[in-house]
Amino acid sequence: MSIxxxxxxxxxxxxxxxxxxxxIAFAIVLLVxxxxxxxxFEQVFRARREAIEGGIERAxxxxxxxxxxxxxxxxxxxxxxxxxxxxxxxxRAEGQQILEELRAxxxxxxxxxxxxxxxxxxxxxxxxxxxxxxxxxTLAVDLAGRVVGESLSDDARRRGTVDRFxxxxxxxxxxxxxxxxxxxxxxxxxxxx
Amino acid sequence: xxxxAHALGTVLAVESGGGDGFQAPGLGEFYPxxxxxxxxxxxxFAITRITIILWIATALMLAFVIAAVRKPQIVPGKxxxxxxxxxxxxxxxxxxxxxxxxxxxxxxxxxxxxxFILANNFMAIVPFAQISPMSKFAFPLVLAGICWVLxxxxxxxxxxxxxxxKDILFLPGVPKPxxxxxxxxxxxxxxxxxxxxxxxxxxxxxxxxxMLLVVFSLGAVYLFGRDNFxxxxxxxxxxxxxxxxFFELLVIFLQAYVFTVLMGTxxxxxxxxxx
Lengths: 193, 275
Fold this sequence. Notes:
The complex is a heterodimer of chains A (about 190) and B (about 280).
Chain A: H1 3-6, H2 16-148, H3 155-175, H4 178-192
Helix pairs in contact in A: 2-3
Chain B: H1 3-17, E1 34-40, E2 43-48, H2 49-69, H3 78-99, H4 107-122, H5 138-159, H6 161-169, H7 179-224, H8 230-271
Antiparallel strand pairs in B: 1-2
Helix pairs in contact in B: 1-7, 2-3, 2-4, 3-4, 3-8, 4-8, 5-6, 5-7, 5-8, 7-8
């Protein structure tokens, strides 16, 4: 095709061969784009979107988890607090009870000790009283015998005299006459002498 | 020998001869010598310099895109980032925003269209190639023809043949008497004007761009060999050639984008029932 011949050609009427060449070239481009380029780009876009959304999701999940563990921790704390309070109350009640028991026991013990003491006291008093009564009787009789200087061996008389004297002594004790008691103590002192 | 070189030879011959003045480059620019010629199934194939440029541009573009997506990463490398930016421009800017919510499946087609035109247009300012295959009408025509078939097919598939053609013939919402005027315009618009303008717009831009560059370049060469005022006009012509090269860069991108966006609007019209 010479250049001068080309001058007469109409540029808007292309030869068929050129059109076919263009078709083939564009078909190859289309094929590559549809089969290779576009799917890969879409894959990248999708992966990127997922990476972003996945990151957000992960962050949300973590936040939820943190929140849940905080709740759990708080619940546990409250539980522990109530438990501690319960234990404290119980201990206090138990302490009170123990104290009451001890007090009651101590009171009982002291009452018992006091009662026994009183009993013993009464028994020894009685014993002393009895002993004194016989001693005083013999002493008084001896004394009286010595004073009189003669035998008052008549039992009946002697017994009557002694009993009378003792009754007198008893009456002095109950009547609380300071002179009578003083007289008896004088008797005793003289007897001991 | 390229056609431009042939024109350059003519200019230099004129210079030495000194007779006829400046021989402006003509249509011959777009009909370079045939490198190889063969006939297959009754069709004549003439392999010229421009055909080879088309192959090289297409192959380089494919190599670049394949390299960009060979190992796709969530955090892209430089090459992947460039490829992704181009693909996203078409996918999000045209397929999603112009074609509509159901436009994403068309993203590969639109991206192929955009990258193919861009790569071939770019050859207009690549040194030693310096002519876009898109300034040969055959190639834009092929693309426009494919687009034409596609948007009509999609219209029939999405809306049904009856509704699609009825809506084009009798535009809804137009008073009945107006159909006398509107119907022929719509038929012409949808089935003739659209593909024709799509092809011619791209072709004419690249054609004119190449002519401008050649005229200014050869003019500069011619004027540098003359006397008188040529000392002033020669550099001006050379400067204009450089300025026009940058202008061409803008046109290269713009025409690729405009072609794709217009195809996007046609697809949008086919997918969505109302115009």
